[in-house]
Amino acid sequence: MISKTLQLSNNRIAHYFEQGEGEPLVLIHGVGMQAAAWYPQIEYFSKDYRVISVDMPGHGQSTKLTDGAPLKAFVDWTIEFITALNLGAVNLAGHSMGSLITTGVSATRPDLVKRMAVLNGVYKRTTQARDAVVNRAEELKTGHIDIETPLQRWFGESEAEQIAAARVKSWLEDVDLSGYTTAYAAFAHGDQIYADDWAKIQCPALVLTGTDDPNSTAEMAIQMASQAQHGTAIVIENERHMVNLTAPDEVNNAMQAWLETKV
After folding, report:
1. 128 CB contacts (<8 Å, ≥6 apart)?
2. Distance, CA of 186 to CA of 29 (rounded, Å)
3. What domains, with CATH codes, occur in the chain?
4. Separation CA 81–CA 203 (nearest Å)
5. Coil, helix or strand for 233?
6. Which one of 8, 69, 144, 217 is least enclosed by Cβ atoms within 10 Å?
């Protein structure tokens, strides 16, 4: 992977990895992760596509946004990043919070998105689920990051899952606390902001999750896909929140079919 940076407005830096040639595929990770969190997809798709995996603001080497920035600020940042790449419309995929950003970009700037994919996304959480994630966002303001709880929630005990868990743990340990706190709050409060815009999305839309992800449920995936004009929902059995790492073959096959969808 080639490490690159783009200069954005207000002297902000966007850092990303790029690999391969061909039609552009832009990948946006979730809260607390880094651009490298798409490593199975970068390796697989860079054989035929120009894969660009970006550090979300306040993560990896990308400049953070102002404290308390809402989800729309992350969407606007991503729009600026894609525009600065000067590649025209891209295939855009997001995981977790990255899926909320992907939805926002696809709904507000359809000219920039050829196809969109949402992995382990959230859609109109229940009051109980929203309260739980908002409480976690508030706890971060105390300066403490709970790493073990999400690892236990996201990964099983198999060797493959534990290898992925070790990588995820290292990213969570390296994250900028301020950037992480701002992003998590935007994620916690962002599930409804673009939820009613799914009907506007006309490009091919893949919505994927695992049956064992209690926060990004199969029901959410089906609802999102049903709202889009050309949506497809895929639910992978016995998989949790980090499905792109724990079931890379199934995810890559689903994304390959999505990328081959005519537009």
Report:
1. none
2. 14
3. 2-259 (3.40.50.1820)
4. 20
5. strand
6. 144
Collapse the DSSP code of 204 into the 3-class scheme (helix H, G, I; strand E, B; otherwise coil) and give the result: coil
Active site residues: 96, 120, 241
Helices 97-108 and 177-188, interaxial angle, to 10°? 60
Q: Note the pLDDT of residue 143.
A: 85
pLDDT digits (tens, 9 = 90+) for 214-255: 999 999 999 999 999 999 999 999 999 999 999 999 999 999
User: What's the Cα-to-Cα distance from 52 to each of 43, 74, 175, 215, rounded to whole Å?
Assistant: 11, 17, 21, 27
As given in the structure block, the two tokens for residue 42 are 């970068």
Q: Which residues are registered as beta bridge partners of 41?
A: none
Q: Compute CA distances 131 → 63, 179, 183, 189, whole Å.
A: 29, 21, 17, 10
Distance linking the first and last C-alpha atoms of the chain = 29
Q: Taking a C-beta distance cutoff of 8 angstroms, is the pair 55, 14 a contact?
A: yes
Distances (CA, A) of 49 to 255, 259, 260: 12, 10, 12
Low-confidence ranges of the chain (pLDDT < 70): none
Residue type, 32: G
The answer to whether residues 182 and 64 touch, using CB atoms and an 8 Å cutoff, is yes
Predicted pLDDT at 50 = 98
Contacts 24+ apart (CB under 8 A), 41-44: 41/93, 41/244, 41/248, 41/251, 41/252, 41/255, 42/1, 42/17, 44/248, 44/252
